[in-house]
Specification:
Blueprint (H helix, E strand, L loop, with lengths): L1 E8 L5 H14 L3 E9 L11 H13 L4 E4 L5 H11 L2 E3 L1 H12 L3 H16 L23 H4 L3 H30 L4 E7 L5 H9 L16 E6 L6 E6 L9 H6 L1 H8 L3 E7 L5 H14 L7 E6 L1 H4 L4 E4 L5 E5 L8 H14 L60
Parallel strand pairs: 1-2, 1-3, 3-4, 5-7, 5-8, 8-9, 9-11
Antiparallel strand pairs: 6-7, 10-11
Helix pairs in contact: 1-4, 4-5, 5-7
Bound molecules: guanosine-5'-triphosphate and magnesium ion (MG).
Magnesium ion binds next to α8.
Length: 415
């Protein structure tokens, strides 16, 4: 699908990086950004977000270049979106809807799908006002997935009922997780969550550490569901549970943050965060900041964190370990791709696990049903699969379908 991107520079932040990110988001959603239209403004126009002259310029470009959809790098009000669609006679998407769309395409687990549907319905509800249906006959493509067109024709009351039902099911799932976590408490295994900005290389690193074969792609939000594996880290600490999580992005729709709050609680219970950074990105410092903001927002900023400076192959750096003044490991420089520095990172996790207050639990008998391969080496080959209950569509009914060690999806972002 041919798309035109629109970015307005309000003079704050790195404008080019932000537009480039929109282009990556668009490609991740499966559209083809043909042209990018930019403008400078001091504040958004109430009716069209851009000025009416700019709007007509966009309209001309769409006709000229056979554009099928216009994607704004901003949150549009329902009225602005409607006005633009009427004036340009073309589907208009804002950044929020674009991200929601990607999430809808990617969600695989039962819970993930429920959460995305909830977020979409809440987003939709704000748009369900008279006059919004002028484009409803257009079919296919992005912006039309999810709740389904027939539901778009139903009224707020029906959506409200569905939202209520979804909330109830998610609450039930959350309760189950809580129970699982409590039973897990008896045989606490040191847990490590990989967090970081989208595309930083979390899944690549997860695979390198666990040999798990998780989907890796140069697109945003390649991972939407958390995968957890048990990894054997040598005699001293035994097994740890490692979790790959969804990436963070700036301006994540707040509906999504709210909808996924249920599962955030799982990340908050990690013993160690490996904060993966794309060390080759020019905006890495801003991304680190964004991720830390989110961690603070969900109350995970107290968890010990190691910055994993990834992609050193692309950045022309050497593997290394950096410590803070207190002697704790602060940064490890690695390449998940070439494997450089991975041994240092494993040692760093071992060191953190040994220093953790829960250490006395590490050797306790584990009594959950999930069998662990007998570890006979000193590396991560013996990780056992812990994520296979995710796809059961009735997972919320089958309590025992979910192994005790699962740490579920994490979707977060600043508003
Ligand atoms: N050069 C280089 N590229 C890497 C390295 N690690 C990952 N990549 C690439 O970075 C891109 C993103 O990798 P992923 O592992 O999917 O990133 P992620 O953080 O899991 O991304 P999301 O799941 O989308 O949040 C892929 O194209 C990887 O091949 C590295 O060490 N060096
Ligand atoms: Mg990933």
């Amino acid at each position: 699908m041919r798309a035109a991107l629109v970015g307005i520079d309000f003079g704050a932040g790195d404008f080019n990086a932000s537009v480039e990110e929109l282009s990556l988001l668009a490609r991740s959603a499966g559209v083809d950004p043909i042209t990018t239209i930019t403008a400078k403004r001091s504040s958004p126009d109430a009716a069209y977000f851009v000025g009416s002259g700019k709007a007509d310029e966009i309209g001309l470009a769409c006709v000229d270049q056979n554009i099928e959809i216009v994607i704004f790098n901003h949150a549009l009000s329902p009225a602005q979106q409607r006005n633009l669609e009427k004036r340009l006679n073309i589907r208009v998407l804002d950044r929020t809807s674009l991200i929601l769309d990607i999430f809808a395409q990617r969600a695989k687990s039962h819970e993930g799908k429920l959460q995305v549907e909830l977020a979409q319905l809440q987003h939709l509800a704000t748009r369900l006002i008279r006059g919004w249906t002028h484009l409803e006959r257009q079919k296919g493509g992005i912006g039309l997935r999810g709740p389904g067109e027939t539901q778009l024709e139903t009224d707020r009351r029906l959506i409200g009922e569905r939202v209520k039902a979804l909330r109830a099911r998610l609450a039930k799932l959350r309760k189950q997780h809580e129970t699982q976590r409590r039973s897990r408490g008896r045989s606490h295994t040191f847990s490590v969550s990989l967090v970081g900005y989208t595309n930083a290389g979390k899944s690549t690193l997860f695979n390198a550490l666990t040999k798990a074969g998780v989907y890796v792609a140069n697109q945003l939000f390649a991972t939407l569901d958390t995968t957890s594996r048990r990894v054997y880290l040598g005699e001293e600490v035994g097994n740890v549970v490692m979790s790959d999580t969804v990436g963070f992005v700036r301006e994540l729709p707040h509906q999504l943050v709210a909808a996924f709050r249920a599962t955030l609680e799982e990340t908050i219970h990690a013993d160690l965060l490996l904060h993966v950074v794309d060390g080759a990105s020019p905006v890495r410092m801003e991304q680190i900041e964004q991720v830390n903001l989110v961690l603070k927002e969900i109350g995970a900023d107290h968890i010990p964190q190691i910055l994993v400076w990834n992609k050193i192959d692309a950045a022309g750096l050497e593997p290394a370990v950096e410590r803070d003044e207190a002697g704790n490991i602060a940064r490890v420089f690695i390449s998940a791709h070439t494997g450089a520095g991975l041994d240092m990172l494993r040692d760093a996790v071992v060191e953190a696990a040994k220093a953790a207050p829960e250490r006395s639990h590490l050797f306790e008998e584990q009594d959950d049903a999930e069998p662990v391969d007998a570890p006979d080496g000193d590396d991560a080959d013996d990780a056992s699969d812990l994520d296979d209950a995710h796809d059961a569509d009735d997972a919320d009914q089958a309590q025992d379908a979910q192994p005790a060690e699962i740490l579920t999806s994490t979707i977060v972002g600043p508003r």
